[in-house]
Amino acid sequence: MAASEGEGSxxxxxxxxxxxxSRRAFVTNMVTFSLLLVAGxxxxxxxxxxxxxxxxxxxxSGGGVTTLASFPKVQVANVADIxxxxxxFFNYPFEEQPNILVKLGVKAENGIGPDGDIVAFxxxxxxxxxIYSFQAAGSSPSCDATYQAPGPVGYCCCHGSVFDLTEGAAxxxxxxxxPEPQVILELDGSTGNIYAVGMAPPTVxxxxxxxxxxxxDLVGGTPVT
Length: 225
Ligand code: FES
Prior knowledge:
- This protein has 225 residues and is an alpha+beta fold.
- It folds into 2 domains: 20-50; 74-217, Rieske Iron-sulfur Protein (3-layer Sandwich).
- Helix content is 16%, strand content 20%.
- The longest helix has 31 residues, at 20-50.
- FE2/S2 (inorganic) cluster binds at residues 125, 127-130, 156, 158-161, 174-176.
């Protein structure tokens, strides 16, 4: 005869209800786990925002971050197309970095061309990074009709920095602590083509790492080709 329940058989064990303290521990662990997952997600997103896209690593010196190992050589103009005091705009050495090339009409430091008056500079102001405009001698910037350029200059309307483009973009007014980086130009005498082949110090605004080699400063952009 089968033993009836409660007779000679071990009573079925029922799990003990969780104590308040173990419930608290469980909840605490779950919250901690969730926070770790969220933190991991944020870290991944942050890394993606900071790191350059993989396609930017073609000239990389390693570590997954683009460093400009050498300046590219790219054609930016032709002598026959340049007119006096009419700027030509081009990006160099990265797609994101604007520069200005202009025939000044007076011989300039490191100028090229038949008259030694064609120069090019970064167009990003060394003060706080605004884009300055070219002002021919005697002209006034759009932001200040009372100012008259004493010669061919770059004039920054943000805070009034003035760069003398005949003297390597030396600062002749306003708060800029440094001159503008000059683009090194090369002229092909047989075709008239003008090439950008490098940049002289100081480093383009926003990239200064304190390195003595400014090509080491230029990290994270898309090199022009
Ligand atoms: Fe150019 Fe301040 S950003 S003068």
